[in-house]
Amino acid sequence: METKKKLMDSAFKLFAYKGNGFSLSEVASEVGIQKASIYAHFASKEELLYAVIDQEINQYFFEINEHYRDLKTLFSMTLNYYDKSQAKLYFWKRLLLFPPKAFTQTLIAKIHVLSEERFQMVKDIICAYMKEGIIRNQDPETVAISYMAMIHGILSSIIIYQAENVTIHFEDIWENFWKGIC
């Protein structure tokens, strides 16, 4: 199982930085095995990549969904998830912008369903905040879209401006958003 994990870790990193253009030879070289040994664990590059993507989807959505309680917690959890690893950020950006065509009917569809669930969760929190008078009454869908756009914008900014230049502003960014909806 240790070799299988190393293969998946290598494929994760290679996909994050190279997209679908990585080769099994690169994976084998990085893990320190012969290319033929990969086939003891995965029948093909597609099967390896499917396992990697599926594992990351499950881990990401579980980790973030398990810890949400309010918008700020969800905001922090999401940004901290990516702050742990630049490869994770690249992996998700590449997966969402340039998904492997072989997985559009399966994994990409799963991401869309889970993303819709996440959006609804954010919208539900916003509606609850409005009912409690925590934020002013406004269109909850617009606020939810603004919230998600803010997070995606920050994540893109981390790639563009380098993490150390953006992460120090997370609290101020949150405060600006929060003041805008209150």
Automatic annotation (TrEMBL):
User: Which InterPro entries does the record match to this protein?
Assistant: Homeodomain-like_sf, HTH-type_Tx_Regulator, HTH_TetR, Tet_transcr_reg_TetR-rel_C_sf
Q: Give the keywords, sorted.
A: DNA-binding
Keyword Lipoprotein among UniProt keywords: no
Residue intervals annotated as DNA-binding region are 23-42
> Record's Gene3D superfamilies?
Homeodomain-like (1.10.10.60), Tetracycline Repressor, domain 2 (1.10.357.10)
A GO MF term: DNA binding
| Ranges where the HTH tetR-type domain occurs | 1-60
Q: Which domain of life is it from?
A: Bacteria
Q: What is this protein called?
A: Transcriptional regulator
Q: What is the organism of origin for this protein?
A: Desulfosporosinus acidiphilus (strain DSM 22704 / JCM 16185 / SJ4)
**Taxonomy-wise, where does this protein's organism fall, top ranks first?**
Bacteria, Bacillati, Bacillota, Clostridia, Eubacteriales
